Amino acid sequence: MKLADEGRDNSFGPEDAMSHYYETPLFNEIDLAFIMRIAGQDFQRLVGYFGDDGARGITAIEAAHASGDAVALVDPAHKLKSEARQLGARRLGDIAAEIERTARRCIEQQVQPGTIDQEIALLRVCFAQTLAILCEQAPRRPSKPARAALAHTTPAGRMRLFGRRAAP
Length: 168
Prior knowledge:
7 helices
């Protein structure tokens, strides 16, 4: 399994203030191997769900951050953190956890979330790296929203995804 950063384009380098995130591996190989084993053939579908949900979640996180809405940051960050960690995506889970933790603290202190700019900037890049590796582990063509996430773009329009109804 190739789960390290070798050969991957990192828009942020280890010399940045975000270097502590680069000390965290992209994946916990044991967790990923475990979910692949117990999910079996359904692993491909899980990766598809993760790609679709993650792309929507990151868009929601970016919009909430841009508007300074700490309350709107909590749910998508929590969901992304949980889904990432279930798939063994440690770095993405840690970034999402920091966004969630900061948003909750901002709500408690009744201030706007201004200290997570770097995490927000890193989130989409890390998601794309994570999704690329997961797609390599579950080889099949990713869904249109997942392909859009891999291309660092936001999916447009509503469509039926993997048998689920699109959000209203």
